[in-house]
Design goal:
binds adenosine-5'-triphosphate, 9 helices, 20% strand, Rossmann fold, metal-binding, 38% helix, two-stranded antiparallel ribbon
């Protein structure tokens, strides 16, 4: 991990709010700004970044001396995922306990090649695995993803408090699916409520790093293995992700972290 300058955890309390979509596009946006970027899929229950980045099913990382894994390159990102190590047929019941062991292994044994940023797609929730990761991993800062819905906000709050407990600075909040714009008539509808992310940000004196609409293009682009930032050179959504990356870089610059990021597991 001495080859990694900055580590950013992307987390959400609630599942399905768009955490992985955000992590993948944030990583691509940092890359588009000229940085060297890695993406670690630590979402052991539903590893999805390989699919989102169009990595062919069954692709396995090369293993080097000392059991070190070589990251798989996708859209210019260095990536590592649980999905590269388990198969669809791996039963969930086996996957749970085995997966947390495997997670430690990929944290310790992936050979990142000089990264400016490593983005970690955290497992959803605030249970033991998340706490251990947040505690043991020397993450520079956390990005909290939520929808404006009360239920998601409540869980996002738990996520913020978990990071505060383990002294990982929260860089800010991403409000995903903030508004739906009808592709036919342009009518705007706040399907998951309004201003929820802002209220959460106000409560914790956190920054809103970005607001993304609920947009069919974001879903289809990701499903096609070419996420929004890679799919288009000129779209509003891509611009949202690029300015999110700027905000993340700015927040990181505000953090005084002279130890340097190192992930250690005892
Ligand atoms: N802004 C958006 N607009 C439209 N669809 C979106 C948006 N963000 C995410 N999605 C879609 O919502 C679904 C869930 O997103 P994603 O997998 O990123 O969520 P997650 O929080 O990581 O979920 P999990 O808890 O399962 O890991 C995906 O189908 C994704 O394409």
């Amino acid at each position: 991990m001495e080859n990694v300058k900055r580590i950013i955890a992307v987390a959400s309390g609630k599942g399905g709010v768009g955490k992985s979509t955000t992590a993948v596009n944030l990583a691509l946006a940092l890359k588009a700004k000229g940085h060297s970027v890695g993406l670690l899929d630590a979402d052991i229950y539903g590893p999805s970044i390989g699919l989102m980045l169009g990595v062919a099913e069954g692709t396995k990382p090369n293993v080097h001396e000392g059991n070190n894994f070589e990251p798989i390159i996708a859209h210019g990102l260095q990536t590592m995922s649980m999905a590269y190590l388990v198969t669809d047929k791996t039963p969930m019941v086996w996957r749970g306990p085995m997966a947390s062991g495997a997670l430690q292994q990929i944290l310790n044994q992936t050979r990142w090649d000089n990264l400016d940023y490593l983005v970690i797609d955290m497992p959803p929730g605030t249970g033991d695995i998340q706490l251990t990761l947040a505690q043991k991993a020397k993450v520079d800062g956390a990005v909290i993803v939520t929808t404006p819905q009360d239920l998601a906000l409540l869980d996002a709050q738990k996520g913020i408090e978990m990071f505060q407990k383990v002294k990982v600075p929260v860089l800010g909040i991403v409000e995903n699916m903030a508004v739906h714009v009808c592709s036919q008539c342009g009518h705007e509808e706040h399907i998951f409520g309004q201003q929820g992310g802002q209220k959460l940000a106000d409560k914790y004196e956190a920054t809103i790093l970005g607001q993304l609409p609920l947009d069919i293009n974001i879903r289809t682009e990701t499903d096609n293995g070419i996420p929004t930032v890679a799919a288009s050179t000129n779209s509003k959504n891509r611009d949202h992700y690029l300015s999110m990356a700027d905000n993340v870089i700015a927040e990181l610059a505000n953090i005084d972290n002279d130890d340097g990021p190192v992930i250690t597991f005892s």
